[in-house]
Amino acid sequence: MPRRFDPLPKQDPFDKKAAARDAWRLFLRYGRPYLGSFLLAVGCLLVAGGLALSFPYFVGKLVDSAFTYKDLSRLNETLVLLVGILTVQAIFSFGRTYLINSIGEQLVADIREDLYAHLMRLSLNFFANRRVGELTSRISSDITVLQSGTTANLAEGLRQIIVLTGGVTLMFVTNARLSLILLSIIPFLVVAAAVFGKRIRRISTRVQDKLGEAAGILDESLSSIRTVQSFTNEEYEIQRYRTQIRGSLREAVRRALARGGFNAFIVFVLFNGIVLLLWLSGKQAIEGTMSVGQVTSFFLYTSVVGTALGAFTELSGEFNQTLGASRRVVELFGTPLEIADAADAQPLARVKGNVEFRDVVFAYPGRSDVPVLKNVSITARSGEVIALVGPSGAGKSTVISLIPRFYDVQSGSILVDGVDVRQCKLHDLRRHIGIVPQETTLFSGTIRENIAYGKLTATTEQVEAAAQAANAHDFIMAFPDGYGTLVGERGVKLSGGQRQRIAIARAILKNPEILILDEATSSLDSESEGLVQTALEALMRGRTTFVIAHRLSTVRNADRILVMEAGQIVESGTHERLLEQNGLYRKLYSLQFRELDEFSPSEL
To answer: Are the C-beta atoms of 200 and 262 separated by less than 8 Å?
Structure first.
């Protein structure tokens, strides 16, 4: 199960404390399994950092051996010692780099896996309000930002703290007076970091948001490329995408400007301070109060401290990016599961297929003031075929979406074999339900893989038997690669009728006790409809079936037809009885078959 976060309260997206808290929670939760490796990396960092701090000291000794003492033996000893120190430092630097990067990769993999698992369990309502491209951006680019922020940059920050602390200390040991001059510069740097950092953080969040919107447009337009091209709206989509990309570019340029201004200020203040220190140390060397080696060591320590302070400016900018990314990732983790198993949920090992709606009232989340279903009651006995007909917007699709608990009712209840679906284990409930939608979605694999999606453990023989039952085997075998034929993105290489028959084969392979057919033949030509209808009849045999159909000719043989209007069932009965009632059903039927007036109901 994904290691989810509690739902987040609404907060200012630029609240640095909240963002830092979220990043810290994320790091602690996912970093705990790698704590030993991280501590080992910190140990390597401490050793390597400590040895790096000894470098200026021994360089000073090397210079003094050559120019102050003119002692070749001492010079050689110092050189050997320095080479040895650098060798050991390189080994520990390798260990630090390897451990930190491997931990970062593992952290990213863990977070991506858990975030994807969490997304898979969220309700349809969540996805109805989010763009897939935006979610893709969060699970890819945002987590990549987190990788550097929570591991590499954290380790680098620790290293620079060690270098800065040790460098300043050794500077004081070398020359306390000159060191105080350098420290007087730091308050200016802190104030600049606070001012520029806030601006950079705000702009970074806007950049990520713009990129997420651009990713949404990209996914939307590419997945609907046939529609885009058929309406010759390529330029419109290009302009939409360009607008978002240019928007993100403008924000990124503003961020670069802010970071550039920050860096320029730091460089100006810091290096002017270093120049002053060099002048003062050179003056002391001339006066004889410092040796050449001490001046060299102090100069190198000054460079180390200056480099560390400069590194902090870079890390500050990247840290602000990490805060924005962590907030977006934790926000997804904190999204509650609206549809989940109850604490006392019951397993459904076997299902007969009895389905009952009891005074169901339903409105879609976020639109509670607009009820879609009003006191709907339906009883479907095992093996019955129940057809739902009515004008668009009557609530037919909503009824069938409640059976597998894609949404929960506001009042009333839905029972399967006498058990409220809210008290069933969700996986068990949906395992016993098969759905053949109007618009079939196939995965971009082979025909065999798409059929086997109904039962992942199915054998080749079972897959082919399901295809034969769905009237799909012949057209599949007509392809050069047969069941190994790649269907393309969303099945684009197949016709509508072929996709539908593969969907039916998938449902046959699943072998559900409850079947839902959502206008499964409405978009097909007459020949394809006949083949698909024959396959559906084989699929429906012995199962409780709910059929939504606009073509009323396809539901004549249903055990019961429910006529819906404005979220209510206004008529119920067989095809013949409903025609005799001369109500809404007869009106709908007449609109489809103008010749109805020439025949009596008994003739029909």
So the answer is: yes
